[in-house]
Amino acid sequence: MPILQWLNKEEAVVKAKHCAYRLLEEIPELSYGDKDNQNLLIQGDNLEALKALIPFYAGKVKCVFIDPPYNTMSAFEHYDDNLEHSKWLTLMYPRLELLRELLHNNGSIWVAIDDNEAHYLKVLMDEIFGRNNFVASVIWEKADSPRNSAKQFSSDHDFIFVYSKNSEWVPRRLPRTEESNSIYTNPDDDPRGPWLPGDPYANKPYSKGLYTIEGPTGRVFSAPPGRFWRISEEKLRELDKDNRIWWGPTGNARPSIKKFLSEVSDLVPRTLWKKQDVGSNRTSKNEMRKLFPGQASFATPKPEALIERVLRIATEEGDYVLDSFLGSGTTIAAAHKMNRRYVGVEIGEHARTLCQPRLEQVINGEQGGISESSGWKQGGGFRFYKLGQAVFDEYGCLNSDIKFPTLAAHIWYLETKTPLNQCDSSAYLGSYKDIAYYLLYNGILGDRRPQGGNVLTSKVLESLPDIEEHNGKQIIVYGESTRLGESRLKQANITFKQIPYDVSAL
Ligand SMILES: C[S@@+](CC[C@H](N)C(=O)[O-])C[C@H]1O[C@@H](n2cnc3c(N)ncnc32)[C@H](O)[C@@H]1O
């Protein structure tokens, strides 16, 4: 497959692997509401933040929505948008790689972009997500009116590229709208309600699709040359008996098959998203003004209704949503109102001055944006984090301040490439593909001495939680050292791995 090349691409390709793996450190005074429902707002560079999320969220995120700087060569109030072209590609490549790792097998990623970088981004995403996982390029009508000062064209739209993690992904259908229902009518007062006359012909050859049929007035109809009836004569007569065939107001027109509104399903998503349905740039600017009256507005917010549509198609309640170029916090505000769980990452100070207070308002019952359409009242909460210490120092050695749950999640991910779902502070981390994993660290076995219980001895082996259940299974134990000889380890089917030497960075 042809791929994109640019100066320093090699650097971009290894960047995700080489970037520091950091802890997330909570700032409790900026967290708000019920903090235990797993919603996170993180201030920091999203490359390091995404890497920190991997051991906990890999394969869990149902929908990533990002709206990265478009590279419009502008300097906005809250961030700069003027990277040299190849630097922009180097910014995006490793972040998209990590986002892919975080996506659920049945997940999708949505990226807002405009003509400045869209066509390069498409090729980049083809490389990272696979060309056959490209789903659609949505056109969002962002402008309300033309910009007459434009030198050449006034741009009315942005793109939103949609890729799925695998090609089997099926978008959820959208609820029918008044507009989509309004084309159904009921000229014959059918008690089953409004209907649409459906085409009775098909282009595809059909062995039972060539016949002539007489209508109520005696007029005879056959399929037009080169086309076929889409149902057999027998079926057509059966539908006619049930008043499901329409022969026109006088009974003299060619038959059509009635499609009742009460029997059609919700709407398949389409690629043209109009401003009257999902809002425009003006809508989002107004939303910001209402949220932060008198304050310098964020230059490039998205309307909540746009995100609402994305989340309706890509997620259901309780699913994880991630936005790592959070801006003013629209994605997580909409996700909160729609009862999705979320992670938002923003590098700028506006993580604290816009995203955090915006979420507080939402939790307190803010009624702008999509509050009405999503039935939002109030409640919930989130934790605010910043990027903390590196888990490994510059020589690759484990930082001694690392706590048990962090090391447990890290080791679990290293071994299984899946996130550790629950870490209930037990030395037994769980089993994966018939291998049981144990971690002896931070005195997890209850021995309060600093190094207590971190060494695998015969006594420790006997006291390991659930150990007898793994008889005959392969067991991997991480610990500071072992006093068991090779033959004893072999006999118990144990592979011992030594902390910190056998614990590598991701
Ligand atoms: C176009 S704005 C997003 C707007 C957002 N969709 C909204 O509705 O407000 C892009 C944001 O990405 C942030 N950003 C840029 N580089 C980043 C990075 N490396 N890590 C985290 N955020 C970053 C910028 O500070 C800016 O706030």
Automatic annotation (TrEMBL):
It comes from the Bacteria. Gene3D superfamilies: Vaccinia Virus protein VP39. Residues 180-199 are annotated as: Disordered. Residues 61-351 form the DNA methylase N-4/N-6 domain. InterPro entries: DNA_methylase_N4/N6 (IPR002941), RM_Methyltransferase (IPR001091), SAM-dependent_MTases_sf (IPR029063). Keywords: Methyltransferase, Transferase. Signal peptide: none annotated. GO terms for biological process: methylation. GO terms for molecular function: DNA binding; N-methyltransferase activity. This is DNA methylase N-4/N-6 domain protein.
